[in-house]
Design a protein that fits this description.
The protein is α/β, with parallel strands linked by helices. It folds into 4 domains: 197 residues, Tetratricopeptide repeat domain (Serine Threonine Protein Phosphatase 5, Tetratricopeptide repeat, Alpha Horseshoe), CATH 1.25.40; 114 residues, Alpha Horseshoe (Serine Threonine Protein Phosphatase 5, Tetratricopeptide repeat), CATH 1.25.40.10; 81 residues, Rossmann fold; 170 residues, Glycogen Phosphorylase B (Rossmann fold), CATH 3.40.50. It is built from 29 helices and 10 strands. Strand 2, helix 22 and strand 3 form a beta-alpha-beta unit. Helix 2 runs parallel beside helix 4.
Length: 613
Amino acid sequence: MNRKQRRASAKQSGKTPISPQQTSAAAFFEKALRLSRAGQLAEAQISCRQALSVDADHADALHLMGLICQAAKQYDLAVEWFAQAIRRNPGVADYFFDLATVLQHQGRLDDAIKSYDRGLVLKPDFAEGWYRLGELLTQQQRRDEARLSFDKALGVNPRYFEAASSSALLHFDAGDYESAIERFDQSFQIKPNPDALYLKGICQIHLKRFDEALVIIGRTLAQLPDHPEVINNYGVVLHKLGRNEEAIVHFDRALGLKPDFLEALNHRGSALAELHRFDEALASFDRAVALKSDFAGAHWNAALLRLLLGDFANGWAGREWGRRSRAIGFVERSFAQPLWLGEAPLAGKTILLHSDEGLGDTIQFARYAPLLAARGARVVLEVDAALHPLLSGMDGVALCVPRGGNEVYDFDVHCPLSSVPLACSTRLEDIPASPYLPLPPQALVDAWQARLGPHDGLRVGLVWSGNPGHGNDRNRSISLRALAPLLDCDATFVSLQKEPRPDDKAYLQERSEIVDLTARLANFVETAALISCLDLVITVDTSVAHLAGALFRPTWVLLPRTPDYRWLLDRTDSPWYPTVRLFRQDATRDYARVVESVRAELLALIAATRASQ
């Protein structure tokens, strides 16, 4: 290999060819490096320039010049020097990492991210590089990529506390609470700290694991006994567990430390409402609103309580505040056409009514479509796809479409379904309660009659649980075993329960006296046809309660001590559904007593039915 070839090979490898000149360049560089480490940057810069005067391609000297300029906050010059070093030797990861740092100082985050990416290709086991990249991606709201980057850092160094903490927070913010718990545990093992413990407890609240949350947040509270946020959330868990007297003690403690603590006031109101201390609950909500007039959560909770108490005039209006809170979960739509809330005549206009809550809510409020049609409106109804077959044939509905299908543009005004009671100024005494659901096709009814066999006794449909994700599922759902006292009554019991939980599914298989044909319930029309073949439906507060009630079938609904607002208080009937009868928990909050009452009434009904035959 001749001298020219050796020089070319040296450039490619990043090494200085061996020659007297280059030995001198290396010596100048080593001197510059020692000076820079000693903080003598001006002298180091002189030595670097001497090295480069001997060998202009000395990549390490070019890189050191960039570092010197970076230390002097001469970022533009630093970028130039780093870029030259990379051109001379693109195989050194640290050059890209240092360039990324300077680009970040300049606010050039996209370029900095690209530089980190290139460096990490060369040096994938550099945990700090992955962490820095994650920080930049977080700043750019590229959270999914940031989580991956922090997790890469942890893969390289499982003891990297900052990476574990950052990853945990991003998983938490994304609602991936299981992964967040893993990362909080990891950060806590590296460096025990109450913040990780506390946030793990908040994850458990979101996952509705309230017993675990109570233990974890309790441990945090032992370390931070005067922290208002921790005290408040300990109270939240107690409230979720139904320990409302204790919860109020903690909310009051938090408010003693922080009198303007809005969330504590709001949660305190909810706990007081559960104890039926309604005046105090409203006062707590109203105090929160007085402190922050646009506090949507307190407006919403106060509105639901007022509706529960029968104050529809204030309740419907206050309920609209739920649209300002993502936590409430309305399905919000945005249209160019104006919102209609009853202020303008509808005659000659097309109105789009669009479902914005759960399936039961949609069934309940669909009753308003014929009323608006009677005012001269052409009514277009947009509903969840699961309800589209059921509601398509409603009187007064010109067009029914499934949400997520073809968009509807040809209308004049729109209104969310759950806002129609407000738009129609509905009061307790004028709730529209006439039949409005179309009857299921007779052919389907006949098919279900055939499947059920001879109708030689009372047929009773059963539903014992709702959606596990519902915010009040702990209070409204029960186990199938809880209904066991009913099963020795002389009746044919038919399951209407879709997707039973594992324990209930096992028990259902044990109880052969329950007819389970739910595999054939493909949609709500099939369910309506089956209900039409039954003499009675016994259900907890789920969409089936609304379906059976809207079909004007005899329906008994089992309710918790403080039910959803639509069932009101202290009455056994429902103004929304004339054929519905309500069975409520008493102050003991014991569903066993409710089932005892249902059993007694069921035995009486069976006896009366026999006597009339």
